């Protein structure tokens, strides 16, 4: 897992990891999926459809396929959006 810079108090910036750092990326990708899907179809996608695009568009990391550490893998906005355009 790649570490990201986070703010630690009082020590300043530190390299750390965790699922909360992924929230911004996943939320932004979900928003892009909703926007692109709505523009292409004229309808808003269901929650399950957004989840499908997030999961199927992810880049597999770690053990092949879904696993308990990385789940479906690393969010890949480009791949998820390209699935809508098929």
From TrEMBL:
Gene3D superfamilies: Peptidase S8/S53 domain (3.40.50.200). This is Peptidase S8/S53 domain-containing protein. GO terms for biological process: proteolysis. One of its GO terms (molecular function) is serine-type endopeptidase activity. The lineage of its organism: Bacteria, Bacillati, Bacillota, Bacilli, Bacillales.
């Amino acid at each position: 897992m790649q570490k990201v810079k986070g703010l630690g108090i009082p020590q300043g910036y530190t390299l750390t990891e965790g699922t909360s750092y992924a929230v911004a990326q996943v939320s932004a990708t979900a928003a892009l999926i909703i926007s692109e899907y709505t523009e292409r179809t004229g309808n808003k996608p269901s929650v399950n459809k957004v989840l499908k695009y997030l999961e199927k568009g992810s880049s597999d990391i770690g053990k092949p396929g879904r696993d308990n550490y990385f789940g479906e893998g690393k969010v890949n906005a480009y791949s998820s959006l390209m699935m809508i355009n098929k």
